[in-house]
Write a structure and sequence with these properties.
By secondary structure, the protein is an all-alpha fold. It has 3 domains: 2-149 and 330-447, no CATH class; 150-228; 237-315, no CATH class. It has 20 helices and no strands. Helix 2 (13-31) runs antiparallel to helix 5 and helix 16 (317-333) packs across helix 18 (393-411).
């Protein structure tokens, strides 16, 4: 029996993997049968309306247009949007399987990486939500698959492939602006790896990789500057910085007394009366009262919160560093899933899913993250011991994921585990490959 299963897995791995992925999504559709809408979702549907009208005049700069473009593409229909996200989820499953198979030259290892990735509930439920997680995961994974498929870490590759990669990375930025660091990070990695090759070719490829994403960044920020007077990807950066500064916002200068006192009042109330997870949301709890008492518009208030937070960060670097460590820790050691539990069609299915997530998968997710950190340290040590000779794709994965964890910690506090989600397939791949390597090395030592 086991031999038959093994034979089928080796012979039809992708077919079985896709059938499993489709089956899971059908179960969610049947028993959940809802598209999850969160406060963030309104910003995306609002921008989609602008795109449907073919005009961004007076757009108020909440979001970048990646997900809104997808929503507009289906006429603003959120159910079709969720359906396309499910298709992208399945395509991501194909990508991680093919990526892993190419890297490991082992079909079964690639199969189990795909199974593990798509079995986690938050992967499927994000596909049923009007949020950027699924689209971000897809473009990030697509970029690594493309780099591997056409060996773009090597210097002598056709120019067209770097142009295509540049387009993919531009799309990644438009979906989640924080990921503007990825083309910059890859360009630096590529340039250092190939610095002793033909310098003109290396520099040209480096420029091509970064130019379009940076041009896209500049164009969108310039549009926001024209519309709202702020050169930014999203004016929510002010709120993000206020969240980072929340623990020491009481140290704001007296010239900001009104905003400071209202903000701190809400922070203290949340500390005493609400769950700990609400603490980073202090700025949003104080939002309405601050609008009323300051007379500022929403954009003006959030910009002012950002300016105050920048002053606080500059004046209190130690407190800021402590908060960055908290956010960095939350990236790895907290979990989140976004669903409307009351929308489940069957109470027993609801309890089963809640139990599976809360008591099994949440802990497994943290365990996988711990293994990733440990294997990353091992990879970095090998890199330094080899005196910088081990410039491979696995090292790039480590560099991009760790840089992402640090980047989000510098500017965001709250829901930090959501920022780790797009890296999940790559993290699973890296952990499984390293575990298999340890297993094989142990087997060799035992035999010898």
């Amino acid at each position: 029996m086991l031999n038959k299963i093994h034979t089928y897995l080796v012979k039809y791995p992708l077919f079985i993997l896709l059938c499993y992925g489709i089956f899971l999504r059908l179960l969610v559709f049947i028993f959940y049968h809802d598209v999850t809408i969160y406060p963030d979702s309104e910003d995306y549907t609002n921008l989609a309306d602008y795109l449907l009208n073919f005009s961004l005049v007076n757009y108020t700069g909440e979001r970048t247009p990646g997900l809104p473009f997808l929503i507009a593409l289906v006429g603003g229909n959120i159910y079709l949007t969720a359906f396309i996200q499910n298709l992208l989820g399945l395509l991501s499953l194909i990508l991680i399987f093919d990526f892993s198979k190419t890297k490991t030259q082992n079909v079964l290892t690639a199969f189990w990486i795909g199974i593990i990735t798509t079995s986690f509930l938050h992967v499927v439920f994000y596909e049923f939500a009007i949020l950027t997680e699924t689209l971000t995961l897809f473009f990030l994974l697509l970029s690594f698959w493309y780099i591997q498929k056409f060996r773009l870490l090597e210097a002598q590759k056709p120019l067209k492939h770097y142009l295509i990669l540049s387009v993919i990375l531009s799309c990644l930025y438009l979906v989640r602006p924080m990921f503007i660091y990825v083309p910059i990070g890859f360009s630096l990695f590529y340039m250092v790896k190939n610095f002793n090759k033909k310098i003109k070719t290396v520099l040209l490829n480096t420029i091509i990789i970064s130019f379009l994403p940076l041009l896209t960044f500049y164009a969108w920020c310039s549009l926001n500057e024209k519309n709202i007077g702020q050169f930014t990807s999203s004016y929510y950066i002010g709120i993000n910085l206020a969240q980072v500064a929340t623990p020491f916002f009481d140290k704001a200068a007296d010239k900001h007394q009104l905003i400071r006192d209202v903000f701190v009042k809400h922070r203290n109330y949340i500390e005493k009366n609400l769950p700990e997870k609400e603490y980073p949301m202090t700025a949003w709890y104080a939002h309405d009262e601050l609008i009323e008492k300051t007379g500022l518009s929403r954009q003006e208030l959030i910009n002012e919160l950002g300016n105050i937070s920048k002053e606080l960060i500059k004046s209190h670097p130690i407190l800021y560093a402590k908060q960055v460590l908290v956010s960095f820790n939350d990236f790895w050691f907290t979990t989140s899933i976004l669903w409307n539990v009351e929308k489940f069609q069957d109470i027993y299915v609801s309890k089963a899913c809640i139990g599976l997530w809360n008591y099994i998968q949440s802990y497994l997710l943290i365990l996988i993250n711990i293994f990733f950190l440990l294997f990353s340290i091992k990879k970095l040590l090998q890199f330094f011991i080899s005196k910088g000779k081990m410039f491979d794709l696995d090292l790039l994965i480590v560099a991009i994921v760790l840089s992402g964890a640090l980047a989000q910690a510098l500017v965001v506090y709250g829901s930090n585990s959501r920022f780790s989600f797009p890296f999940f397939p790559l993290i699973v791949y890296f952990v499984i490959v390293n575990i298999m390597t340890l297993k094989n090395n142990y087997a060799k030592r035992t035999l010898s």
